[in-house]
Write a structure and sequence with these properties.
single chain, about 270 residues, alpha+beta, Protein Transport Mog1p, Chain A, 7-stranded antiparallel sheet, 4 helices, rod-shaped
């Protein structure tokens, strides 16, 4: 008869003949020689494979993972119409501010700034970029030119000055000009006005070409000045109610005979006939 015993070395149960109880017996599991002592309950028959092991609470994972709570569905992002308008308005203002900063002092004059102008005596008409300031022009005896008037507009934003000036011709010179088919006398009067305008602007003439305006004629000048460049017309009108010499021009950054401001001024000028 076999009696169940327990190995005092590995603790696993096995069976021995009843006659060997209390004697030294090799453990069939760990091969240790131990005293065969009976156990209170019959041992399970040995298995053919590895023994089954029971995990204790100490062997369990100390912090088992908790199941994730279900996520609430995200609500769609809602943007108020006022926020959209504010963003769009901010972009527009930023773009407008950038353009305004880049054009400051560039010589650009907006088309909306120009309007027709004529003096009280109606002696000419021209487009000017604003209400002009009025000042007297002294006589220029070398050119047989009497006193006159200058109308000028200076833009603080464009840093550009636009002007139209006129001075009456000496009556005797005006009469002689009608017989001056070679325009020798006319050329002398224009040279005197050219020098006066150059000195007034403090510049240097870089270009000079002849111009015609119906029966009137004159020269177109380009100058470099301390404030940039200037494009100037000197026009001699020896017919009509008031024989005069006119000086009209634009001075500022990029002011040339082909600039938009100069072409607007020159093309709009109309002396009375």
């Amino acid at each position: 008869m076999f009696v169940p015993v327990s190995c005092t070395s590995c603790g696993k149960p096995f069976q021995v003949p009843e006659a060997t109880l209390g004697q030294q017996t090799p453990c069939p599991w760990c091969k240790a020689v131990v005293v065969a002592l009976p156990v209170s309950a019959p041992a399970a028959p040995p298995s053919t494979g590895a023994s089954s092991e029971v995990l204790s609470l100490d062997d369990a994972e100390p912090n088992p993972p908790k199941p994730e709570a279900p996520r609430a569905p995200r609500e769609p992002l809602r943007v108020s119409p006022r926020a959209v308008v504010a963003v769009v308005l901010g972009c527009v203002l930023a773009a407008g501010g950038t353009v305004a900063a880049l054009r400051y002092g560039s010589g650009h004059i907006a088309d909306s700034s120009w309007s027709a102008f004529a003096p009280a005596d109606g002696s000419f008409a021209v487009d000017l970029p604003g209400a002009p300031a009025v000042e007297d022009v002294p006589a220029n005896p070398p050119g047989s030119v009497g006193p006159g008037t200058r109308y000028s507009v200076s833009g603080w934003y464009s840093k550009t000055t636009v002007w139209v000036a006129h001075a009456d011709l000496d009556p005797a010179l005006a009469e002689k000009l009608k017989q001056d088919s070679d325009r020798v006398l006319s050329a002398g009067a224009l040279r005197a006005e050219r020098e006066r305008e150059r000195l007034r602007l403090g510049g240097t003439v870089t270009s000079e070409v002849g111009v015609r305006l119906n029966a009137a004629w004159g020269v177109e000048l380009e100058l470099t000045t301390p404030r940039g460049t200037a494009a100037v017309w000197l026009v001699l009108v020896d017919s009509g109610p008031k024989p005069r010499v006119y000086a009209l021009g634009v001075e500022g950054k990029g002011a040339t005979g082909k600039s938009a401001a100069a072409r607007r001024l020159f093309n709009s000028f109309r002396p009375a006939q």
